[in-house]
Design goal:
This protein is about 35% helix and about 15% strand. Mean pLDDT is about 70; it is low at about 260-270 and about 270-290. Strands 4-5-3-2-1-6-8-7 form an eight-stranded mixed sheet, covered by helices on one side. Helix 2 crosses helix 3 (about 45-50). The protein has three domains: about 10-60; about 75-120, no CATH class; about 135-170 and about 195-295, no CATH class. It contains ten helices and eight strands. The chain has about 300 residues and is α/β, with parallel strands linked by helices. It has helices at about 10-20, 30-40, 45-50, 55-60, 75-90, 100, 110-120, 135-155, 245-250, 250-260, and strands at about 160-170, 200-205, 215-220, 230, 235-240, 270, 285, 295. This is HTH CENPB-type domain-containing protein.
């Protein structure tokens, strides 16, 4: 059985090029020399190829395995460009493009080719999302407007009166539906509370000094008086939506009940990390008379 060829490192190729330069620039004898002296499995064609690429070989790092741009090239670059344009056209129309669509039955593309095609053109399987993506110009304008508004008011605020809040969904059941089990098991059954889709929204708050404030739990239920009540060390409110709306935090009764430790007449900043759900016609900055004089909601 013929011996398999061993890959040579860039440092070894540099050594071959230097040997050829010291021996009258003849690449062919170097193959026999490195076979006999070093025991390399190298052919004369390989040595001649390295000699032709001697300029790039000298400039390449010694630790790399091959020259930049070397390796196998796509055999059908024009067809790949056309296929990539079709993918972009379908995605611009918000159509689904899967691997089976790329690997068409009449195209006879293998899984390995599809992997290489997606890697060469910078594509991958993505999960669908409904989040709107803002342009860089819009994000820059909003960031500048937010910082200019907040910076002018930071001097009159103390760390005790700056509250950072965020909302998170709390489910009544573990959303993970995977479990360890024996190989070959026909069924994977998990106990359920019967309220897998039921949830509440918890508003977590902390001051700039690190003091944790009592959480606010938002329920969606029949009792929708929008009155914040305290049960133990937790505030609870019922409203039509189970998430935090800006009206809940900006009205006087809601803010005063949720942040009772703030003294009336003192300014306080209210910054939310994720941004509350703005209602129609509302802006990104709210002011009111009372305990909290400034409420800032950064837009996503």
């Amino acid at each position: 059985m013929p011996s398999s060829r061993m890959a040579n490192s860039m440092a070894e190729k540099k050594e071959v090029v230097q040997w050829i330069e010291k021996n009258a620039g003849a690449p062919t004898p170097s193959a026999a020399f490195f076979k006999d002296e070093r025991g390399w499995k190298v052919s004369e064609d390989q040595v001649r190829k390295w000699w032709k690429q001697r300029t790039a070989t000298k400039a390449a790092p010694a630790l790399c395995s091959r020259l930049s741009g070397a390796g196998a090239k796509p055999r059908l670059p024009e067809i790949e460009d056309i296929l990539f344009d079709q993918v972009l056209f379908c995605r611009s129309a918000k159509e689904k493009v899967c691997r089976d669509w790329i690997r068409d039955a009449g195209f006879f593309a293998s899984d390995r080719w599809v992997n290489g095609f997606t890697r060469r053109y910078g594509m991958s399987l993505r999960r669908t999302t409904n989040l709107a993506v803002l342009t860089d110009d819009v994000l820059t304008d909003r960031a500048v407007s937010f910082l200019s508004y907040l910076t002018s008011r930071m001097d009159g605020l103390s760390d005790d009166h700056i509250i950072l809040i965020d909302e998170t969904a709390v489910y009544f059941e573990n959303p993970r539906r995977q479990t360890m089990d024996q190989v070959g098991a026909r069924h994977g059954v998990l106990r359920s509370t019967g309220f897998a889709s039921m949830r509440v929204t918890t508003v977590l708050a902390v001051t700039a000094t690190g003091r944790k404030l009592p959480p606010l739990v938002v329920w969606k239920g029949a009792k929708q008086d929008d009155k914040i009540e305290r049960y133990g060390n937790v505030y609870v409110v019922n409203q039509p939506k189970e998430w935090v709306e800006s009206a809940l935090l900006t009205r006087g009764s809601g803010v005063s009940a949720h942040f009772p430790h703030l003294h009336a007449g003192k300014s306080a900043g209210l910054g939310q990390h994720a941004g509350t759900h703005l209602q129609d016609g509302e802006g990104s900055v709210h002011r009111e008379r009372g305990t909290v004089t400034t409420a800032v909601e950064p837009s996503n």
